[in-house]
Design goal:
The protein has 17 helices and 21 strands. With 482 residues, the protein is an alpha/beta fold.
Length: 482
């Protein structure tokens, strides 16, 4: 149900494909309206409000992350990031934060940290899915009893009308769900080792600690470490001479180490041991004068670093078509290696083509694709067949996270990569009653919890773990290299 306190707000939303009820202005009328709702009724409150923070303008939209009312515990609104994302896609200026409800509103400066104030929202929640969208019409800087109010009012009402498609999306996505949690998911041992390496350097030596490129491919991890004093650079020449430098988990070419030594840097190598194994394999085959087919994505940092071990001997093979065309110097002296974060079945197809073309082809002693990539792909394959939708938590530049999306899609299930709940599109959730959730090896576990919490704001959620294989691998932290 879409609740609008005022007649003018209801008029602004006329034609919306959701039942609209005018509940009346103020807490008494809101409370009376709520008493007539069936328990558990989904309620979306939409209307105008007073902006509570400096700089807010008429027409700005506030989506409540919690609603505060007198004599009441703050009420969290878990679906707020999903609704805010839908509104932003409409081109609106959207703020996420608390909304306070008061028996009456007065002028003067705002208090309590709320972004907006109204007189109804706290009294309209009835225990079911709940959300609040308020459009700023006045503020402490621009109170109602001032010239310009009619103009600001029209601007706010136009913005409220523009919200309608997002309100419809929220209503269509509401309902109970089962969440299938793929296990294992999130951090692998190599990622944990890399993050702990930066954390330890900050703890022991204090900031700044320089890190070449992203320590792992996750925007949340990078932002957190940057806030604690890590300085991320693209190349070694951006690091002051004599400083401390951490090398990322994806590995680097030998030339990077030489450049670091030339600048007198103290280097801490956080390269994942499984990536280091591939580097060693490429060096070994190059000393045998082999052409090494490196199966992987040429733009990925791991492939750049691996290829740098023997650039004259390595040919990058990103797909089957390339595998059918690639020409080594000597077909009798050929071997292959793999990027560790590839999709297992796709990499296997490429390797099969190479084997068919080159009978003398030799491979690594053990599979290059890391255990974490294999396990997570197996886990997402296990839930995809039972799900209407799969959400993969991970950043767009995370190869292993993107591969999880592809694995789910090859199983016939729609799948999407999201960095956090704010990237979930409500339209994906309409009709999706069983949602699979997993996370790439570089995504923090707490982000999965935030996704599940956001889904719970749309209706009751039953979460079920689906464990494909247990993981108990850990790696020792690296030592500093002077």
């Amino acid at each position: 149900m879409l609740c609008t306190p005022l007649r003018v707000e209801r008029a602004a939303l006329r034609g919306t494909r959701v039942p609209v009820r005018r509940t009346g202005m103020g807490p008494r009328r809101a409370d009376a309206a709520a008493a007539s709702f069936r328990p558990g009724t989904p309620v979306l409150v939409a209307g105008l409000a007073r902006g509570e923070t400096p700089g807010m303008r008429a027409g700005d939209v506030v989506v409540a992350t919690e609603v505060r009312g007198p004599g009441r515990e703050p009420l969290p609104v878990p679906s707020a990031p999903l609704l805010a994302a839908a509104l932003r896609r409409l081109g609106l200026t959207v703020h996420l934060g608390p909304v306070r409800s008061a028996p009456r509103l007065v002028g003067g400066p705002a208090t309590g940290g709320a972004l907006a104030a109204d007189m109804e929202s706290a009294w309209l929640a009835v225990g079911g899915p709940f959300a609040v969208v308020r459009v700023v019409v006045d503020s402490a800087e621009h109170p109602l009893a001032r010239p310009g109010t009619p103009v600001r009012g029209l601007r706010a009402l136009r913005a409220l009308r523009a919200c309608a498609p997002a309100l419809e999306e929220w209503a269509a996505a509401v309902g109970p769900r089962e969440v299938l949690l793929a296990s294992p998911r999130s951090f692998c041992a190599g990622v944990e080792r890399a993050i702990q390496t930066v954390e330890r350097a900050l703890e022991w030596h204090g900031p700044p600690v320089y890190v070449r490129r992203q320590i792992v491919h996750n925007a949340h991890v990078v932002r957190d470490l940057a806030a604690r004093g890590a300085v991320f650079v693209e190349e070694v020449d951006e690091v002051p001479p004599g400083a401390r430098l951490v090398l990322a988990a994806h590995g680097v070419a030998p030339g990077v180490r030489r450049d670091a030594a030339a600048r007198g840097l103290t280097v801490v190598d956080a390269t994942c041991p499984l990536v280091a194994k591939v580097h060693a394999e490429v060096r070994r085959q190059a000393t045998r004068d082999h052409t090494v087919f490196l199966i992987g994505h040429p733009e990925h940092e791991e492939v750049e670093g691996t290829r740098g071990e023997a650039p004259d001997h390595v040919l990058v093979v990103p797909d089957v078509d390339t595998a059918r065309r690639v020409r080594p110097r000597d077909p009798q002296r050929v071997s292959y290696a793999m990027q560790t974060t590839l999709a297992v079945d796709e990499a296997g197809e490429i390797a099969d083509v190479l084997r068919a073309r080159f009978p003398a082809l030799t491979g690594p002693r053990t599979d290059d694709i890391c255990y974490a990539t294999t396990n997570r792909q197996q886990a997402v394959r296990g839930i995809a067949g039972d799900a209407d939708l799969v959400l993969v938590v991970g950043s767009a530049n995370s190869s292993n996270s993107r591969r999880l999306v592809e694995v789910a899609e090859r199983a016939g299930t729609p799948a999407h990569l999201v960095d956090d709940p704010g990237q979930i599109d409500l339209r994906w959730l309409a009709g999706a009653r069983r949602v699979g959730v997993t996370a790439g090896a570089s995504a923090p576990p707490h982000l999965v919890g935030r996704v599940v919490t956001a889904l719970s704001g749309l209706g009751p959620v039953t979460a079920r773990e689906s464990e494909a294989v247990a993981e108990d691998i850990s790696f020792a932290l690296p030592r500093e290299e002077d």
